[in-house]
Amino acid sequence: MLYNIHHVIENALIVSIFKRLGLWLSLIVMLSTVFGYARIANNIRERSLQHLQHYTQQQVQLQEQSLAELMSYLRITQQRLSHDLTLPLDINYFCQYLNTNIPVQAQQQPLMGIYLYTAQQTQTLFWQPQGTCQLRPLPAHLQAISIQSEPISWQLLNKKEIAAILPIENPHHPFTLIATLDVHHLLMADNRLSPYEVTPQLYNARGELLDSEATTTTRWHISPSIQTGIYWDVLHKNHVAVAYLPTLNSYLALSLSKTVVGTMAWETAQLFILFGLLMLTAVFILLYFSLTQQVAKPLHHMILAIKRLEQHDFTIRLKMKRQDELGMLAKSFDRMVRRLATDEQQLQAYARQLESAKESLECKVHERTLALESANREIQQLNHCLQVENQRMSAELAVTHRLQQMVLPKLHELKDIHELDIAVFMEPADEVGGDYYDVLSHNGSVKIGIGDVTGHGLESGVLMLMVQTAVRTLQANNVTDPTQFFTALNHTIYANIQRMNSDKTLTLSLLDYQDGNVRLSGQHEYVLWVNQNGQVDLIDTQQLGFIVGIEPEISQWINFKELFLQTGEGLVLYTDGITEATNPKRELYGLKRLCDVVSRHWHLATAQIQQAVINDVRQHIGVGRALDDITLVVMKRIPRPSRLPLYTETEDNLCDIIA
């Protein structure tokens, strides 16, 4: 039972621990790397954009400050030259003057040059920041603004040049001082970031690029209606910060490449990943030493204990006081060993008891075998007796059934009755039925009886024979009064039932017919009175008598009802085996369905009517069998000349034919 169990525990625990730790640590490192890199990239991007926007505003302030300082120097020069200039212009004087009066800081500004223009001369003095002067014609794009009488602070002349115009009010001749700046040098001046990180551009209010060094392909892809803010250049994959430059009525745009942001994020993420790997390595080292001390040694002790347990040493105990899973396992192991020791002792005791019980059981089995053999012989004898008794009972039932069939009316008796077309049917539920019917002709009158003995079987069949004998005897003695007839019949049946110590009783109705007159007496089921058109009326017999055989005296309950049958009218008598027949759904056949079938087929002969009713009852019952005796009597008054034979003379029993 414990073979190699220590190997199973050792391998399962170690593999499970390292597998779970490896999976969890790998998942933690991967998630930390992914989320860390994403967070670092997002932070670097946000800080870069904030720095870009801040730097753009700072550049605008520096440019504004530079242009303001340069303008102040130019105004000082304007004031001084307004008193010292004379014609013709002296180049040396003008160059020396500007070199002396314009400070070095102003000369370091992105000046392209200063023009001193007057309309009296075709040549214009041109001073360059390098300190040289020369005479040259005034450029065409500056002639249009040289005639301005009002000073112009700074103005964009084209996409690469900015100019300031200062008229000099000289007492002798009017002069105009024109200073020009290069847009590209203005943008690159005082750039505190590397050109690889930030690229400045200048746009006018219409969104046109003013950088003389740029081309249309390097224009940032930003909105034509340029506004201050941060933009994403989809075309060049750059972030662009835009700030308004009030002095030039233009916009300064600085772009930061997405590649620069990604490179900075990756460099930072590499440090983060390296740190994570170092931490993971440290964790694995700590886990290794921890598992060695906390898991490997206790497992080794447990394996030694299991080996001893395999040798049936039930005295071994781990006695581990740890509160973790290994401690719980050790406690479970100790409990298991104690239970195994107890079970071993009980098994030994049970083995001794079993050996003793085995010897006792063998003796009892031998005794019981002898007793069973004797009982088997007795059972075989009883079975033989029962078979003999069953054969005798079957013979008696067959005799009784034959007696019942013998006392039923014969075909020739029904055939001899004039004016009436009579069809009868009886089918017992067992070998011997408890239903009664009879058709007796005496002195020109016909007596038709129908009854139902409680239950069925031998007793009910015997009682039915008693009733048939008593009715025939009373008719032979010309007893026609219903009260006298039923009183005498009840006395006879009641006395016999008491002698038989039986609880059987019966309901019985008698019908006396002569020349269309009918007298109905006795208590039984409803009688169906059918006219020539098939319309059915129900005659209730409950008030016409009482149950026969239940009381010694019933004369006070006997009554009768008289009616007259026209030609084509008739009566239908039945027992409750028809109306209470059930189908597989336990639904009753019912009196209404019986009336409907009789009404639909009344235009036919009584034998056909009777057959239609029986067929419909069997269709209702289905594949099952009838649980009660079924008896049906159909009689119809017919004209005497239209009497037709219904049965052949070779047939001797009506029930045999119909069955």
UniProtKB/TrEMBL annotation:
Gene Ontology annotations of biological process type: signal transduction
Domain (HAMP): residue spans on this chain: 293-345
UniProt lineage: Bacteria, Pseudomonadati, Pseudomonadota, Gammaproteobacteria, Thiotrichales
Transmembrane segments: 21-40, 271-291
Alphabetical list of InterPro entries matching this protein: Bact_Sigma-Reg, HAMP_dom, PPM-type-like_dom_sf, PPM-type_phosphatase-like_dom
Protein name: Serine phosphatase RsbU, regulator of sigma subunit
Keywords: Coiled coil, Hydrolase, Membrane, Transmembrane, Transmembrane helix
Pfam families: HAMP, SpoIIE
GO cellular component, one term: membrane
Organism whose genome encodes this protein: Beggiatoa alba B18LD
Keyword Nucleotide-binding: no
GO MF term set: phosphatase activity
Chain coiled-coil ranges: 340-392
PANTHER family cross-referenced by the UniProt entry: STAGE II SPORULATION PROTEIN E (PTHR43156:SF2), STAGE II SPORULATION PROTEIN E-RELATED (PTHR43156)
